[in-house]
Amino acid sequence: MFSIGDLSRRTGVKVPTIRYYEQMGLVAAPERSDGNQRRYGRQELERLAFVRHARDLGFGVDDIRALIELSGHPDQPCGHADSIAAEQLASVREKIARLKRLETELERIATCCDGKTVGDCYVIRALSDHALCADDHA
Amino acid sequence: MFSIGDLSRRTGVKVPTIRYYEQMGLVAAPERSDGNQRRYGRQELERLAFVRHARDLGFGVDDIRALIELSGHPDQPCGHADSIAAEQLASVREKIARLKRLETELERIATCCDGKTVGDCYVIRALSDHALCADDHA
DNA sequence: GTAATTCCTCTAGTCACTAGAGCTTCAAGA
DNA sequence: TCTTGAAGCTCTAGTGACTAGAGGAATTAC
Ligand SMILES: [Zn+2]
Ligand SMILES: [Zn+2]
Ligand SMILES: [Zn+2]
Ligand SMILES: [Zn+2]
């Protein structure tokens, strides 16, 4: 049996975060000791590792809840799980695309200043005038 | 003189967001009509456009406040403005790097499932086992 | 037995908004 | 001038995924 601190050390999930996941229904409420402290077993450790991994990959809490629910029904078709993963991939790709547009503009903004005072500063000028931007990064 | 709705249409910033920016000190509290409604001039429109542009480029509220404060002192050296922009560029690049690592893993996770049921689903298996990942995306 | 550490619950704060309730003011047509 | 409907006002609370802290109880090590 692990205490919540043991579980935290083994999974890298902070103690208050484990309690938060319990509240959110990502992890089942475990047994308690006589003194009302949480006591976990191997199964809970694995589930928490699953949650942690999915969070690290950027899945939202609702997606993770759905994936856990699904994994409890191994005979059902897995199309839903596959589509959650595909959506997550698409969302990551969108974020990358947007950030790359920002990178292009910021590269110019951050490296083109040859002024000495705020009055000549290219950073300030560029932020004041979107027409100087190459791209519609909005 | 513009009403808050006029300002919103001209800048693309939603009305409640304009009021929020005023509360946060990004935009000065404007004059009021006899009936206590906000009335803006050309100057406030420009400042709001500046704020909007900086937000679109990902700058945080504190950075924007500092940049506005600086731009009110055109004779000061602009090193601080330049470094705020450089930090923002670095932060965007870090985010891109992290998302690209996620993209690599998610690509595999989302496309390698050839199972039919949840029991065989590669998505579920991959999320349960970080050892299948190529990279340390944590 | 005692002291240090860990645990408990609960509330509130983070960031940058967004939504809604309940009320007042403004602008345009009849 | 009157009326109606849009737009404005303030204030509170909710979002996502935690994080911090208060104030107290349980556990563990010596
Ligand atoms: Zn400069
Ligand atoms: Zn721009
Ligand atoms: Zn599958
Ligand atoms: Zn992994």
Q: What does this protein look like?
A:
Two copies of one chain form a homodimer. The first copy, chain A, has 138 residues and is an all-alpha fold. The longest helix of chain A is centred in the C-terminal third of the chain and has 33 residues. In chain A, β1 and β2 form a beta hairpin. Chain A folds into two domains: 58 residues, Multidrug-efflux Transporter Regulator, Chain: A, Domain 2 (Orthogonal Bundle); 62 residues. Helix content of chain A is 61%, strand content 3%. Chain A is built from six helices and two strands, in the order ααββαααα. At the A-B interface, α3, α4, α5 and α6 of A face α3, α4, α5 and α6 of B. One zinc ion (ZN) sits at the interface of chains A and B. The structure holds a DNA duplex (30 and 30 nucleotides).
In short:
With 138 residues, the first copy, chain A, is mainly alpha-helical. Helices cover 61% and strands 3% of the residues of chain A. The first copy, chain A, has a two-stranded antiparallel sheet with strand order 1-2.
Topology of this protein?
Two copies of one chain form a homodimer.
Chain A lengths: L3 H8 L3 H10 L6 E2 L5 E2 L2 H15 L4 H11 L7 H33 L10 H7 L10
Antiparallel strand pairs in A: 1-2
One zinc ion sits at the interface of chains B and A.
Chain A binds a DNA duplex (30 and 30 nucleotides) through helix 2.
